[in-house]
Amino acid sequence: MSPPLPLPPPLRRSPLQVLTSKSGLPVELQPALATAIKAYGLGWSFTTVPSLVAWLVKLVLCTIKRDLKGVSKLARALGPMLQKSITKNGMPVMMTGVLSGHSFLSYVLSRIPQPWWGRKRDPSVLPIKTLTGERVMMIISAATTMFFCRRAFKMHTLDLTLTVLTRAFDTIGFAFYASPWASHLPGWILDYGSVMAFTAVTAEVLYTWIYEPSRLPRSYAKWISNIGSFDERLFLVLRGFQDGSLMYGKDTGKNNVLDGLADDLGCPRDLCNPLNGRIPCFVVHNGQQYGCEVNALTKISTAFSKAYPLYFMVHVVLPLCISRKRLREDPVGTLSHSIRGSIRSTSFISALVGILMYSMCLTRTRIGHQLLRAPQKYLDHSWALVMSCTLSGLSVMLESKPRRAEMALYVAPRAMRSLTDRCLSMITKNRWWEAGVGESIETMVFSVSVAIILEAMYKYDSLVRSSTKSMMTWVLKEELEKDKK
Question: Which DSSP state fits 101?
């Protein structure tokens, strides 16, 4: 008689799996509960960790300065800040409902007896278990969650909707690229599609930043101004030329808009007055006297020095903190790869600033004024700025191909937000039904976008970009494993 086969070792369960198994929920819902817990934690982290880091930095600075009043004030502020992050923060609830709500909804509906389904029918083939039924559950749960969060937390959801919509378009793009239809397109479109997308969204964002900065998040517009070292008083002149409140050679009553800049540069005020004709390059260059080319190089070097600490954190510090195993296995190769990535990304943002500045100088000075002798009122008009903003987007070609698409996906929601605001401002008239219709359209767009991404994660994860897939795989791990079984 042969000896009995040894039993396989018991599967190790994570603390989260142990917790969900003790929840008392049915086995079918335990993976969904794990997803809900992780989704809530992720949403809370997105919205609260930056505030905690800022609080910690202030605490360290106050401690170094031995500012006891500041330390006491920060200590008192911590409790209300944490309480507000739970009671006034809708993002954790939003992510919980969006990523796990459809599983709970499907379970509840599958347990309700429906005469037209047939009592003896296999539950696995009920309408809500089909692909169409799953899509409907995803859409309903996402729409219900958004409706609740808007009212319970007074949550503004447009930025989130545009971000999810951008990722859904990206998933659709992957599906098209993998389909036979892609073979009918020229190869250069497939190779440089991300460059064209980034160029388009960058042109929109930079145009908005110059002419309508209120349509962009304040911190984002401030970051662009800081990286490029642009004096916003010059933008007041450009806006004046666009809306007609300023004109070369004509007194409009607002010609003293650059008097403060003239005083700062130590030059006569008449030199900065549009009434006296063309504003010289010396003023546009913030006092730099060595020509447009030197000014562009100065902008590039300044932008590089300001942007490198940020990209060093993104490419070197954070990845090495997360993937310490890879650092131990190949420290030299890992560090060199990360540092090259940080230099490449910093070069990209520096080139963007340099191209923007120099293309403006080419239009208004080198080509337009010196070569073509064109009237200055046309050279400082918005069409010239549109061309400069578009050309600056070509700087993304300094990035690697995967990073080009990521940069386009990062900028796209802001471009879509400013474009949406601009279009809506032309058609809305504060009619009683406009708010409700707009909210309904946004909810539908958000819900369908969520359904596209979730369906791709469950059925066709190769269509989801790695940056999105890594986060979604971690959140949906238990449900994905259950779905594979």
Answer: H
DSSP state of 279: P
Hey, what are 281's tokens? 């390059």
3-state SS of 205-237 is: HHHHHHHCHHHCCHHHHHHHHHHHCCCHHHHHH
Q: Judging by beta carbons within 10 Å of its beta carbon (0-12, 13-18, 19+), is residue 39 exposed, middle or buried?
A: buried
Instruction: Say how far residue 159 (Cα) sits from the centre of its chain.
Output: 9
- Number of continuous H segments (helices) and E segments (strands) in the chain: 21, 0
| Identity of residue 420 | T
Residue 390 burial (CB count, 10 A): 19
Evaluate the CA torsion angle 104, 106, 107, 109 in order and state its sign: positive
Structure tokens at 231: 């004096």
pLDDT digits (tens, 9 = 90+) for 199-214: 999 999 999 999 998 8
Report the distance separating Cα 181 and Cα 419, nearest Å: 30
User: Taking the CB of residue 461, how many other CB atoms lie within 10 A of it?
Assistant: 13
**What are the tokens at 117?**
């389904």
pLDDT in tens, 280-318: 888 888 888 888 889 899 999 999 999 888 888 877 776
Handedness of CA 34, 39, 44, 50 (dihedral sign): positive
Burial of residue 164 (CB within 10 Å: 0-12, 13-18, 19+) is buried
Counted residue by residue, the chain has a size of 485
